[in-house]
Amino acid sequence: MTTKLPERQIVELEVQVQSQLSSFGARLKQLRLQRGWTLEELAARSSLSKAFLSRLESGGRQASIAAALTLSRIFNVSLASLFEPQLEPCVIVRGSDAIEKSVNGLKYVPLSNAGHFFNLQPIKVTVPVSRRGSEHYQHDGEEWIYVLSGVLTLSLAGKTYDLKPGDAAHFDSRLPHRLIANGKRDAEVLLVASPVSRPPQTMLPQVSQHRAIPMLNLLTFNPPDEMAAQPRRATINFNTRLKTKTTRRQKL
Fold it and tell me: Whole-model pTM above 0.85?
């Protein structure tokens, strides 16, 4: 008997696969440009077609093991390093490259493909007037939303907040929340999510990770033991310091 995965898990897996493809393509393009090669030159060196290499770099094609091995040999790097995403000082997302996706009745466009190197997830979200259901979502972190157009109602922990264009809201996403479009047109918002939030003044119980939009492979912050431990206090032995001073005076 085959068990069918929930739609939310399928979407999250698709996002992870696409992130891996994008990382491989970005790494491949970086290595090629570092050597000053064109796609034609890399194709001639690797015996792989220019069209295939172009799709690899754009993340539209998955490399076979044979192709990955060939490329690692051409660039003289380890196979593993081809799949390691590289941190760029500035990530640019062109409007022409943005791809709209749909999940849980929402339409959204990721505004960063930085992967897990950064802790913010900026997204442009369209909340359709026709969105059905009343399901609320809650997960670790915090969210900030800014209304671009339309009229939006934020349902948060049993309360509702009506927002118009130019209004913003910042809230703890561990609280049950849902975005609702009011009026005759869809609502468009900028949403910035972060899976890490500062310890709140009032401790909330841990919640299950139930997101309307899957997290895009962001960094999960786990403080090291040294940070989690209580800071050490320096202890000064004043008797030792006085004794040292006295000894020095006797010598003088």
Answer: no
